[in-house]
Every structure is written in structure tokens, then in C-alpha cells.
Amino acid sequence: ITSFDSGDGKSVTSANLALVTAESGLRTLLIDGDIRKGNLHEFFGLPNVMGLSDILAGRDDLGVLLSRSLLDSKYDNLTLLTAGRASINPAVLLSKPRLGELIELLKGKFDAIVMDSVPSIGGPDSAFLAEHSDGVVIVVHGQRGTRRSLRHTLQTLRQGTNRTVNIYGIVFNRIALQLTSTYNQPYYRRNLAINPEKLDQEMLNAGKRTAFPGRNSNVMIDPSGIRLYSFAAASVQLGVTKETMQEWVRTGFIKSEKRNHRDWISETEISQMLEHLPRHEIVTNNPQVVLPTKNSTGKLSSGKLRDLLGNQRDALLASARDVNPTDDADS
């Protein structure tokens, strides 16, 4: 599913199409292929910690990474693969052969796959996804779409090696909500609650403080040595908006605690929330690969959640590669 510009409604269309397909009884996977500014996870109230971009950027077994990335959408028969947070150039990631290998693996696990793509104004990403799809649906904003914008989208789709892209059709979208959506802003200018580089620096400096943190601080260390994050910092760690984080706290999806007249979210609470997310395991054909297991401690090894996932993954893969010589002898 693609469109010309942000705010045209492609993500809403993708989500609705996936939901209808799942309701028909088909095992459906919804992929957020907009790895520049994807926000499908927000629609389903889920975090974006590890997803498509991380899988494409990695070198580990696809089955292992998918078992850590595929999330239960909370709707029957519908699984979500978020955009991920890898910082490598999206066009470079999507042009790798690994994308084709991933799609082929997923085709054997699901009855239908819906991919939400990048608007064509943002780059050639949609062409790479189109190469690995059976067909493309183009979403056109009914009030501002033009022939020129549609022609540009078609030209972008044909930039790939497969220049005969199958166009299923066009969806004319006139949803007024899209006109005022936060998505309808200059594209690829992600509005984070706090700059990630600033957050990294605060995490480094948090342990050096001898006094209480200031009003504008986003990280502090409690007496037991656990990091505490402000709502803004926690939202960046989990890849969601600050508003989503506040809603999660309000509904009890994640718990906050009061310190120095401010609300904070502990590193342990974030870790436990991630560990309890319902995931969709992929059975790998490689008998030497061991799928990840849950960490019962709930305590992070560093302030970065990607480090937690990376450390778990590396340990599992190291043990999987350590083949017992006696096994070889017996075989």
C-alpha cells in the first residue's frame, strides 16, 4: 500500500485492509514497511523497539529475529511487524536480497501479507517493496490528489528491477481526520519527545549526580541503582509518542512512580512490559538455532533497550553455534 504524500491515508488503509482480511479467517501479517517514519504500532497500542529495519540490518537467523519482532495485534489472526529502529539508510536496507528472503519465509507462515510503504515523495522505498509483492494499491487523497502526483507514484514504483508492477487499483480517500493528523507534516522529520543523542548523554551523566535531578532532567538513578525515565524519555525508548505513553500509564498498561513530585517510569518496568508482550514465534528449519526465551529478571544491562535485545540475541546465537563435537561424531 503506497501513496504520493504523507497524510493521504495509506497507513489507515493498510491497517483496515489487514483487519478485514484477518476477520475473514486468514492468518494475516501487517508489515510497517515505512522504516523512515512508520507509526502503525501506535494504531495498535504497541511499542516499536525491534522490527523490519532491525531484521534487514542484522545478520542473524531470520527465524530468531522474527520471533523477537512479530507482535500479536490483539485482534484474531492479525500479527504486526513494526518498522523497527535501525539507523541505516532505508533505501539501502530495502534493496538488499535479505528482504526477498524474509518475504519468502513469511509467505510460508501467513495466508496474507499487507505491507504499508513509504509515500513516493519520500524516496524509492516503495519500489523495493513492490518487487516482492503480488500487487500494489495506491491511495490517493480525494481532495488534493493530482494527475501529476499519481504519475510520480507510478514512475517511482517502476524504478525497481521489476518494471512491470501489478497495480491492483486506486483507493480514493477523503477522511477529514487525515487533514489534521500529526502525520501530515513535512515528511521524514520525526517529532520525538526528546532528542535521542541528548537522552544518551543524560543516561551517561545520571550516575554522576549527587543531588536530585532538575526539573528538566529526563533520567535519574534511584537508591537501588535502577534508572528512572521521564515520560518523554520512556516514550523515546519504546518508540511511541509521549501521548501514547501517558495513555498507557492511565490505563495501567505500564506503571509509573512518583519521585520528587514528578512521575517516572523505571527501567525494570519497561523491561517487564517488553518481556510480556504477546509475540508470534516463527519455527525455524535450522535445528541448531534456539529461539529466544524470556528474561525473568526484568533488569536491563544498559539504558538502551536495543542493547537488551542485542545482548539476549547474541547470547542465544553464541550458544546455538556452539555445536557439541560428540553430536557430530554420533551423526
Characterization of this structure:
The protein is α/β, with parallel strands linked by helices and 331 residues long. The protein has two domains: 2-180, 3-Layer(aba) Sandwich (Rossmann fold); 196-275, Multidrug-efflux Transporter Regulator, Chain: A, Domain 2 (Orthogonal Bundle). Helix content is 40%, strand content 14%. It has 15 helices and eleven strands. The chain has helices spanning 10-23, 40-43, 52-57, 62-69, 90-94, 97-107, 125-131, 147-157, 177-180, 196-206, 231-238, 242-251, 267-275, 305-321, 325-330, and strands spanning 2-3, 28-32, 71-72, 78-81, 112-116, 136-141, 167-173, 219-221, 227-229, 257-259, 262-266. The strands form three sheets. A four-stranded mixed β-sheet has the order 3-4-2-5. A four-stranded antiparallel β-sheet has the order 8-9-11-10. The radius of gyration is 21 Å and the shape is globular. The model is unreliable at 178-190, 290-313 and 319-331 (pLDDT under 50).
Distance between the termini: 48 Å
Mean pLDDT: 77
Give me the side-by-side strand order of the main sheet.
Answer: 3-4-2-5
The number of helical runs is 15
| Named CATH architecture of the largest domain | 3-Layer(aba) Sandwich
Helices and strands, in order, run as EHEHHHEEHHEHEHEHHEEHHEEHHH
